[in-house]
Automatic annotation (TrEMBL):
Keywords noted in UniProt: ATP-binding, Nucleotide-binding, Transport
Gene3D superfamilies per UniProt: P-loop containing nucleotide triphosphate hydrolases
GO MF annotation terms: ATP binding; ATP hydrolysis activity
Residues forming coiled coils: none
Pfam families given in the database record: ABC_tran
Superkingdom of origin organism: Bacteria
Family (UniProt): Belongs to the ABC transporter superfamily.
Record-linked InterPro entries: AAA+_ATPase (IPR003593), ABC_transporter-like_ATP-bd (IPR003439), ABC_transporter-like_CS (IPR017871), P-loop_NTPase (IPR027417)
Signal peptide: none
Record-linked PROSITE patterns: ABC_TRANSPORTER_1, ABC_TRANSPORTER_2
Protein name: ABC-2 type transport system ATP-binding protein
């Protein structure tokens, strides 16, 4: 395994008829980290993952893996592995047979099938038909497919879906180990408490737009009320890593700065503040504070 530049998304947009699924989205997933990709249902997460993997063509913007688009990778399976669902299996085919077919199509040595079966804990079920697998077992098999080429990058959509508590801990431990080896792990999930334990960084989107990108454990959101909201937005917008969400004409949610920095910036710009509060704590608190802005 060689070093990678990770995943880069820049100005990505995609519409389906009148629906804007992804809207000028920019973020990074760095090597050696687990990045949680979060958002409500319909936020644009799955569409974004499919554009990264070249399965959906964006209207504009770029995505790269190791500095190249997915279609430019000479041997994609050796660079990026993906598990987007656990349903695309022939029910009459054995797990080992399924993996060996992928070995041929991915130009991977045939013995790698047994290696990844062992990694995901399916060795004893290798000869069983996939139609008899539970959802959790199919999730493990999907991860095995993603790992076949020993890739530097893993892109996973709800990988813990269907796993029991022991399986969730197993998944967390494996992904953490892979990230510690220097790999880039991008995980889309609705399980916020699990992401709090697993992810180094999180990207939160809604309606296809970026709401927050930053460290999981340092996540906080600043709630600001001011009669000069537009002026404060313009003043803060030039700061690196800052995202600003408008709740009402006089209320903003700011991430990427602490309350003291927001207050100091407003004071220096002569902007009156009526309210300034910092919400810290769990990832769940941050997620709902940001996504509730769309409903306020």
């Amino acid at each position: 395994m060689t070093e990678t530049e990770g995943i880069t998304v820049r100005g990505l947009s995609k519409s389906f008829a009148a629906v804007r699924a992804v809207d000028n989205l920019t973020f990074d997933a760095a090597p050696g980290t687990v990045t949680g990709f979060l958002g409500p249902n319909g936020a644009g997460k799955s569409t974004t993952l499919r554009m990264i993997l070249g399965l959906v063509r964006p209207d504009c913007g770029t995505t790269t893996i190791d500095g190249q688009s997915y279609h430019e990778l000479p041997i994609p399976a050796a660079v990026a592995g993906a598990a987007l669902d656990a349903e695309g299996f022939h029910p009459g085919r054995a797990g080992r047979t399924h993996l060996r077919i992928y070995c041929h199509t991915s130009r991977v040595p045939i013995q790698r099938a047994d290696d990844v079966l062992d990694m995901v804990g399916l060795t004893n079920a290798a000869h069983r038909r996939i139609g008899g697998y539970s959802l959790g077992m199919r999730q493990r098999l999907a991860l095995a497919v993603a790992l076949l080429g020993d890739p530097q990058v893993l892109i996973l959509d709800e990988p813990a879906n269907g796993l029991d508590p022991e399986g969730i801990v197993w998944m967390r431990t494996l992904l953490r180990q892979l990230a510690d080896e220097g790999r880039t792990i991008l995980v889309s999930s609705h399980v916020l408490t699990e992401m709090q334990h697993l992810a180094d960084n999180v990207v939160i989107i809604n309606h296809g737009q970026l709401l927050y990108q930053g460290p999981t454990q340092q996540a906080s959101v600043i709630d600001v009320r001011t009669p000069q909201a537009d002026a404060l937005r313009l003043t803060l917008a030039h700061r690196d890593g800052v995202t600003i969400e408008t709740l009402t004409p006089d209320r903003l949610l700011v991430t990427g700065l602490d309350a003291a920095a927001v207050g100091r910036t407003a004071f220096e710009a002569g902007i009156e503040l009526a309210w300034l509060a910092e919400r810290t704590g769990s990832l769940e608190n941050l997620f709902f504070a940001l996504t509730s802005a769309e409903r306020s």
